[in-house]
Design brief:
single chain; alpha+beta; 4-stranded mixed sheet; 27 helices
Length: about 950
């Protein structure tokens, strides 16, 4: 028995003191002091009575007679034997002494033989015989136990152990309010917090104070330690019945219960109904502040004892099946009552449609003072506890609740009437995941949210808020994949599934119903949709959609399509729009529907440039008033010249005048087609003004510089100024064809912008060649000789390069010779060897470049002079070499001649005898015969 009550001395005496104080109805006090080797333990309350004496000396049975007592001088008193064999129990009603030595003497004096034992000398009991003494308790106490400590007892260690027990004893024995150990005093107090909750304080030596929140359930008291004003889970402890036992526990709260224990109060009696102690544990959780309730959920882990395992199971079952878990409250109408009196469930959201809440009202609330985060201010401090009936909409049974990990207040506000019951944000963080697993709450993921969104009918701004609230959760591709079925409201009023099928235009401020594309409503557009696969699309992209092109091909006059196209066009860059938008049919002033490219705006300046029978109507002015002139022009309604644009064109299929001919002139297919249309409808007399309009608009002006483009090509061939095609006019700064071609001169126009449409000396076309040949044959024109020679050279080079098809050109009736005269071709030769120009008369020679003389002869249908006239040098001369003859050296430097391989023949008089078409002997200064060069030597005048 002595071993069973080891280290429980203060505990057992404190229980006796608590019983005495309880019976007396006074605040219990216990004081321990050391006087020499005597340990004094005094207490207040009912003094020792006869039943107590019997309990001490008889059967070691407790003398308590009421269920509120925890022990009164019963077997627990034997704990004194752990430190003493001489004990006094002093009381105001009488005092007793117990002594092992006195008992031994009494047995000897009475002649009672002492029994022998196998283990040594017989040790008589200490607490069987009592002697009455006159000693009284220390003043201020009703009972005092005095223990004369054995020599082997360390008094200081004994007191230190008692100090360590003092706080626990004040918690376990509420009838005790004060315990003094030596000079250290411990005082307990409590404050009623409402709803059965009390805040218990224990003040120790100095400034030491410890705090617990205590809840009294039907079968047990539960205590949670408090740190910085908030409850925290208790450290691993033991079952207290009511004082500490050896039944180890791992519960988050301390438990003090009235449950049958073995006589030494260390172990439970077999069959003790531990599960009943869990009754009311969920109510304890319910009265805690909402953000702190999960502290009562046992953490997963191995039980520390059989009792621990049974209690944990019972507590978890109690928490799982009772309503206490804080959940988001669905929105309420203006009256302040919960819609329908019940929280919404996910099923309600799918089957019952949406419910509106008053403007500005938060999504979930506990009372009328509710704020956006979902809990009233009372839930976090002050006096937070009010009655919460089991039907209250702000709590739920955990196994019926749904938890979204990381739920934010913003997302909770939006999901309040979509999913329920939904655990509040404060308990949905990752730190609470373990507790939610224990409670078996339903896990809600992004995929489930996306699935539920498909059945919702909400305004676009609500969807934008939902996307903003969900965006922080999309942290990796897997999360984005889970939201793949998220619903998106469209500009045309539909709600579709999956952002990947949607296009976004963040430039639109109003919803435009675009039926050919899934355009997200602009008020719902959010960057999350792009992260989930939505394609960004500008107004230009939407108007370039091939689905729209197909619509226009099938139903060009559909009014809904026309409305959407024109509204989008008001926000688009006209340059970036496809030309096929002009197929859109619009109403004209005559009440007919015509393609946009067959309509002009009222007062269009283009109208004055066109031929009388031009096939253009005028768009209905009401469309101009409704959509604006810019939108109509963007889809092809004319104001000035329109431009056809297509990327990667594959052929001449753009309904442009003579497009086939232009396309055939290209070496390769162009990467882009950009061309001014309807040029063929310009009246001949209107071309000066037409050119001004083309130069005034940037989109057409840039096309004038594209020498290979359709616009410049067509203007060169067909546009005329005073009856002359632009391609046959000379730029004012270009001197190549001076005297042959007329100069481009249009008032208020800078000719530099039209270089690509004017005559280009580097590009001799058939038309330009014909014009130049005609000009050369015109005696009224007086070009300079070098202009004539260079023109002949360029014409011959074009023939040599196969850029001219001679079948398209007729030989001229007259040709221009070196003298500048225009002669009959039968009297002329093409100069192919320049030295013949020294002997043949200039009015018989047509000069160009020697290397292309044969091509020029072919073009003009003339013979080469070297083929028609023979030449022979008269006289032998003096034969020498270029390197030794001084004159040769001088001539090479003077004329920058290359190294000469043949002979140099110097003549005093150099005569050449001509034959063939021309018979004559001519004195020349230079002649070449094969590789031999003949020169006339300088002569000195006498």
């Amino acid at each position: 028995m002595r071993a069973g009550y080891r280290d429980r001395l203060l505990t057992e005496l404190a229980q006796n003191a608590a019983d005495a104080a309880g019976k007396a109805g006074v605040a219990g006090r216990l004081a321990v002091r050391l006087d020499g080797s005597d340990l004094h333990i005094g207490n207040t309350g009912v003094p020792l009575d006869l039943s107590g004496v019997h309990a001490l000396t008889a059967l070691r049975a407790s003398g308590k007679s009421d269920t509120g007592s925890v022990g009164r001088f019963g077997v627990g008193f034997t704990a004194v034997l752990a430190v003493s064999e001489d004990i006094e129990v002093r009381s105001t009603s009488g005092s007793l002494r117990f002594s092992r030595a006195l008992t031994r003497d009494a047995l000897c004096h009475s002649g009672i033989p002492l029994p022998g034992t196998d283990l040594g000398e017989f040790v008589p009991p200490t607490l069987r015989l009592a002697w009455s003494i006159e000693s009284t308790p220390t003043p201020g106490f009703d009972t005092e136990v005095v223990l004369r400590l054995r020599d082997d007892v360390d008094a200081d260690a004994l007191l230190a152990g008692m100090r360590a027990e003092a706080v626990d004893l004040l918690l376990e024995l509420p009838a005790l309010q004060r315990i003094r150990i030596g000079s250290d005093e411990y005082v307990s107090s409590a404050e009623d917090m409402g709803d059965g909750l009390h805040e218990v304080y224990v003040d120790g030596p100095g400034d030491e104070q410890r705090t617990w929140w205590q809840y009294r359930a039907p079968r047990a008291r539960w205590l949670l330690p408090v740190r910085d004003g908030r409850p925290v889970a208790a450290a691993p402890d033991v079952l207290r019945a009511p004082t500490r036992s050896d039944e180890e526990l791992s519960l988050p709260a301390l438990i003090i219960a009235d449950i049958p224990m073995q006589p030494d109060r260390r172990r439970l009696l077999p069959g003790a109904r531990l599960a009943e102690l869990a009754e009311g544990y969920a109510d304890f959780a319910r009265v805690l502040p909402a953000r702190d309730r999960l502290v009562l959920v046992p953490a997963p882990g191995f039980a520390r004892s059989e009792a621990d395992g049974l209690l944990r199971e019972a507590l978890v079952r109690e928490l799982q099946t009772r309503p206490w878990l804080p959940v988001v409250v669905p929105p309420r109408p203006a009256s302040g009552h919960v819609v329908g009196g019940e929280p919404h469930s996910a099923g309600d959201a799918l089957g019952g449609g949406s419910r509106d809440r008053s403007e500005g009202e938060p999504a979930y609330a506990l009372d009328d003072a509710q704020v956006d985060v979902g809990l009233s201010d009372k839930a976090f401090g002050g006096s937070p506890f009010t009655a919460n009936p089991s039907t209250s909409p702000d709590i739920a049974v955990p196994t019926r609740a749904q938890v979204f990990t990381g739920l934010t207040p913003e997302l909770a506000t939006l999901l309040a009437d979509v999913i329920g019951p939904l655990v509040i944000p404060e308990l949905s963080g990752g730190l609470h995941s373990e507790a939610m697993n224990v409670l078996d709450a339903h896990r809600l993921g992004l995929a489930r949210l996306a699935e539920l969104s498909g059945g919702l009918d909400r305004p676009p701004s609500w969807w934008s808020s939902l996307y903003a609230a969900l965006e922080p959760f999309v942290v990796d591709p897997l999360a984005a994949e889970e939201l793949g079925a998220l619903a998106v409201p469209l500009a045309d009023g539909r709600v579709v599934t999956g952002p990947r099928t949607v296009v976004l235009d963040d430039q639109l401020e109003v919803a435009i119903p675009v039926h050919w594309a899934r355009l997200a409503h602009p008020e719902a557009a959010h960057s999350l949709l792009a992260r989930l696969g939505a394609r960004s699309a500008t107004a230009e992209d939407l108007l370039s959609d091939l689905a729209l092109r197909a619509d226009l091909e099938d139903r060009p006059g559909d009014p809904d399509t026309a409305d959407a196209v024109l509204r989008l066009a008001a926000h688009a860059d006209p340059v970036a729009l496809p030309s096929w938008l002009s197929a859109l049919e619009l109403l004209d002033t005559g009440g007919e529907y015509l393609p946009a490219d067959e309509l002009l705006l009222p007062g269009a300046p283009l109208r004055d440039l066109l031929v009388e029978d031009a096939p253009f109507g005028t768009v209905d002015p009401t469309l101009v008033d409704r959509y604006g002139a810019d939108a109509l022009r963007a889809v092809g309604v004319g104001w000035d010249f329109s431009v056809v644009v297509e990327a990667d064109p594959t052929g001449p299929d753009h309904d442009l005048d003579d497009e086939d001919h232009w396309w055939a002139s290209l070496r390769d297919d162009p990467p882009e087609l950009a061309a001014v249309r309807d040029l063929e409808l310009v009246a001949d007399a209107a071309w000066p003004e037409a050119l001004r309009q083309l130069a005034a608009a940037p989109r057409t002006y840039r096309l004038l510089a594209d020498v290979d483009g359709y616009t410049a090509w067509w203007l060169r061939r067909y546009a005329q100024i005073d009856g002359t095609a632009l391609g046959l006019l000379r730029h004012p700064a270009d001197t190549e064809f001076v005297g042959l071609l007329p100069t481009f001169a249009v008032a208020d126009l800078d000719a530099d912008g039209f270089r690509a449409v004017l005559a280009d000396p580097e590009t001799i076309t058939a038309d330009l060649a014909a014009a130049l040949l005609a000009a050369l044959a015109d005696p009224a024109k007086t070009p300079a000789g070098d202009v004539v020679s260079r023109t002949h050279s360029r014409l011959a080079a074009a023939v040599a390069a196969d850029r001219l098809d001679l079948t398209d050109l007729d030989p001229p009736d007259r040709v221009r010779v070196l003298s500048g005269a225009v002669v009959d071709p039968g009297d002329a030769f093409v100069l192919d060897q320049p030295w013949f120009g020294l002997a043949v008369p200039p009015d018989r020679l047509v000069a160009g470049a020697a290397e292309t003389a044969s091509d020029l002869a072919t073009l003009l249908d003339l013979p080469l002079v070297s083929d028609s006239v023979t030449a022979e040098v008269v006289g032998e001369g003096r034969r020498t070499s270029w390197t030794t003859e001084p004159l040769g050296v001088v001539l090479r430097q003077l004329f920058t001649l290359p190294s000469q391989e043949g002979e140099l023949v110097v003549h005093d008089d150099l005569l050449v005898r001509l034959g063939g078409a021309i018979v004559s002997t001519v004195a020349v200064s230079w002649w070449r015969d094969g590789s031999t060069v003949h020169v006339r030597a300088p002569r000195t005048q006498d």
